[in-house]
Amino acid sequence: MSEINVTLTRTPDITDEIAEDSVAMPALLGPWALMWRKFRRHRVAYVSLWVVVFIYGMAMFGEVLTTTNLEETNVRAPFAPPMGIDLFVENADGTSNFLLHAKGLKLELNRVEMRRTFVQDPEKIIPLGFFVKGHPYKLLGLIPMDRHLFGPKNPRDRVYFFGADRLGRDIFSRIVMGTRISMSIGLVGVVVSLVIGISLGGISGYYGGWIDNIIQRLIEFIRSIPTIPLWMGLAAAIPLGWPPLYTYFVVTLIVSMIGWTGLAREVRGKFLSLRNEDFIVAARLDGLTDWEVIWKHMVPSFSSHIIASLTLAVPLMILAETSLSFLGIGLQPPIVSWGTLLKEAQNIRTIIQAPWLLIAPGSVIVIAVLALNFLGDGLRDAADPNAH
Amino acid sequence: MLGFIARRILYMIPTVIMVSIVTFIIIQLPPGDYLDTLAAELSDSGGLSTGTMEALRNQYGLGQPVYVQYWKWISGILLRGDFGLSFEKNLPVGDLIWDRLGWTFAISLLTLGFIWITALPIGIYSAVRKYSVGDYAATFFGFIGLAVPNFLLALVMMYVAFKYFGQSVGGLVSPEYINAPWTGAKFVDLLKHIWMPIVVVGTSGAAALIRIMRANLLDELYRPYVVTARAKGMSEFQLLMRYPVRVALNPFISTIGWILPTLVSGEIIVAVVMNLPTTGPMLLRALLVQDMYLAGSLILIVSLLTVLGTLISDLLLAWIDPRIRYQ
Lengths: 388, 327
Known about the structure:
The complex is a heterodimer. Chain A has a four-stranded antiparallel beta sheet. Chain A is elongated, with a radius of gyration of 27 Å. Chain A is 59% helix and 14% strand. In chain A, a hairpin with a 3-residue loop joins strand 3 (115-139) and strand 4. Chain A is α+β, with helices and mostly antiparallel strands. Chain A has 13 helices and four strands. Chain B is mainly alpha-helical. Chain B contains 14 helices and two strands, in the order H-H-H-H-E-E-H-H-H-H-H-H-H-H-H-H. Chain B has a two-stranded antiparallel ribbon. Chain B is globular. Chain B starts with a helix and ends with a helix.
């Protein structure tokens, strides 16, 4: 009680309104507020947070960003190269005026390589604009809409900001929509590993003894075998005829089967070190059940660490899904994920003909994984009271 | 030390048994049993006589309880070295896999060497010259290396090598050497090809190890014993190599344990992209056509060899660091 009084007397410049509140809660920062303050000082992590928010936003409202329907093919644009965005149009009299546009493409016979290649068609100007009408969709699966953030003003024009694939499908739109599957596999996978990790890690650390020994051996076993062959073996058993949603959940489960071990180890370590702390002993002496001790006192004291490790686990899951789908044994088309997009760029001949098939989805994956890694690192530093 | 070795080997036994059980489950996962597939496969070409079918059915214990099948399968491997039949190639699995496995582990071990050779000096440099340009470059490289999936890096490197250096890509040797006997020229050609998978597989491991080495060394660099040695007038390089680096090296060796599985994993997926004559493409193909005895044997042996590698690294660590022996 005396402590609170001291704090109050030391802050006389607080306005009346706040002072009234602070009788109950003095101007002390809670652990989360302290963490947030520390986190914001970590510049890279703070920027990464916004990148991650943006990517998840893209996953939720992807349709707004797309320019064409996901599955729409175009016989006149197989392997069309990326189109740039130009700002000015030259008029016939030599002057130029501002018009946001992209130059159309036309096919021309390249006599050196003896095949047809795309060249820019300066005659064909596709005006671009914001909030344009396009293909209809349902926002969040509920609200019917047909406006798109950025695209051609004439709904019949087609633009390919990141190029097109072998069927003339727009890579940009497909990447945007692939975000939903790829990023959600990361999240769902992490939730599954969180549940397994906390339960097994908790049991292991709280009770110790033989059950701890068994769980530790199990974790060692899972960590000591190479993951890719195991994943491949399990994923290959998914029947091809299954509906996409089933495949999605099974792939997520397979991916998270490995992810939980790291988390379980961390939770166990925390339980072991907390088990004999005074406040836990006190709670137990007060007659709380094991369940209450764990959920009311132990878990809150290391939840910030858990959040940081979870953030670091998401990119691992994303990479795992991408690798499996790339090999053709994870998600299958027509599901669009970053992994199935990269599958299009599997052989070197395709990549040389259309490098954007590799570069565009590849860079998106790297950016997402980098941002999540930086974010996780920042959170871990912020959650550690001893870090400097 | 002997006690430690015995205990460590004893701990390995349940792991080995679990590996075999998991492999067996994978073999059993696809619907239908092995002989159904075999019969369907051979029915076009005359089919098998009922007698042969019965004999095979008996040999693999098909139609009997699962544990009997497991026992027949595992005892065949342990007692007779019989891994079953690859129905796609119509050959015993044992004849197909060994040189592929050899290449996989050769590349994984070479990669381990590459990781150590690069991560050790860069890690030391980045700790000693903390916050220098080189340190930031190493940190940046580290984060990128961890964020780029192996197969993506492989594709990018193949693209760059082909487009800008005109090098033939894919495979371990150029096409004209594939069936040629081993000569000096073939060996040189092999060296020209093999560096690429090694660098690709090793990048993420090297990135992780640089971070670990840097953190370990930073913990040691400002200890009183280092200051004492410096005060006595020892040259900076000698001081560094003789004390803090040696202490920081310990966790470095223990990393083999967790890095070996990731290397083998990475090698398998990179081999598929680069079309190397190793386990990767064979395993993928076997899984896609559900040639389960071949796939299962590959998974089993790759996992067992990795477990063995981890055991060796643990023993090495115990040999170097007495604290671990007496735990």
